[in-house]
Amino acid sequence: MSLIKPILLAGVSLALLAAPAIAQDPEAIRTAEALRERALQGSGAYEIVEDLTTRFGARPAGTESERAAARWGAEQFRAWGFSNVAVESFPLSAWRRGEERVEVLSPAPQRLVVTALGGSIATPEGGVEGEAAIFRTYQELLDAPVGALRGKIAVVLQDTPRAQDGAGYGSTSPIRFQGPTEAARRGAVGFLLRSLGTHDHRFAHTGATRVGEGTIPAFALSPPDADQLLRLRDAGLGPVRLRLFADVGFLEASTSQNVIGEVIGDERPDEVIVIGGHLDSWDLGTGAIDDGAGVAITAAALRLIAELPERPARTIRVVWWGAEEVSQPPPAPGLAGARHYAETRRDQAANHVAVSESDFGAGPIYALALPANADPEFRQAAMRVLTPLGIYFDGTPARGGGPDTGPLVALGVPAFRLAQDGTDYFDTHHTADDVIDRIEPENLDQNVAAWAAFLWLLAESDVSFRPPAQE
């Protein structure tokens, strides 16, 4: 996607001198514009993703690959001039994918292309067999009474709609997370769903499902195989009977970790802006889109700020969170890295100015969303700098800045959002096609330009996004 051509820095400077006073020092705006222009010339984010995915490939949570990537990340942070670099470990149950297969036994024997859902339990050694109970929508499954699927394999074939903001995925992700549990409540012995993807290629999407008592072996079907099952059901050849097999499960206790570095503010160092992405990935691809791009974008933005001759007034901290992808056995919830960061800084939450992450692929940023009580003059300053990048202001208040920001938001930390175009994100998300070949370097540069410029304005300002009662 082509980017809107940035206007000349000199022209912007002249316009600012003639503009009314706003809640941002004109010098801060000029520096933000310079950061924007520098990033558009080549931010280095693509090279970070390339290095990460080449050296370490996939980085499932709790594996040596993830730990090695974290050590490498800390080395990069130090080389880029970040301060207080740390690798903070926490306990984790790592999930292992082994052999997996699903086949139609009758009426027309054939293999299907599938992948086990993350956190799924294994089948017995001989697999699980049963008649397929095929539902076009998740609601149809939920409408089935308890016991109605006894001994059967539940199959949900609902499509994920394509949407720029990912809303289609939001509407179908409960099928993957809750579907196996709901099927088990109705007596099913296995669960299949149409992959939560927006393409029609013959590969499947993994992703976390709920784990704990009552779960059953669970798989995602490639879209063409989901359509094949529907055709078989409707062909009038008799019941569709399936066999499932999966040698998967949780390993013994392991560890994951967050990688942290910062540029310390020179005026109000205790006021902290937190940014980042998650370092772990699923095992099918190399985690370039999800979320190598995000860790690279935010780190490259902070690196540009670290290279300036002056430091920002506030501290900017980048976190490469670990273990975002995999659910944990009860009582532990998901987002283990984000929860560890928030819990270990609970007494510092009041000093966190804002939080956001980049975790929606490598598409260009198209909108900025701020908390409901954001200062209008700060918003005006931000949009002066971001508009030339093709970014507009989204008046819908930001309630979160990405999955890993959730635990901090729960502690009262305000979130902002730099919204990426995710129209094609779910074509590759959680699949073998999540590789660096799907990334356009110029889109990463546009992302870095937006992040670096916005962060500088926020760090140089004295604005607070918190409601007055929390200040």
UniProtKB/TrEMBL annotation:
Residues 258-454 form the Peptidase M28 domain. It is found in: Endoplasmic reticulum; Golgi apparatus; Lysosome; Secreted. It comes from the Bacteria. It holds the Pfam family Peptidase_M28. Gene3D superfamilies: 3.50.30.30, Zn peptidases. Keywords: Carboxypeptidase, Endoplasmic reticulum, Glycoprotein, Golgi apparatus, Hydrolase, Lysosome, Metal-binding, Metalloprotease, Protease, Secreted, Signal, Zinc, Zymogen. Coiled coil: none annotated. Residues 1-23 form the signal peptide. Homodimer. The monomeric form is inactive while the homodimer is active. This is Carboxypeptidase Q. It comes from Brevundimonas balnearis.
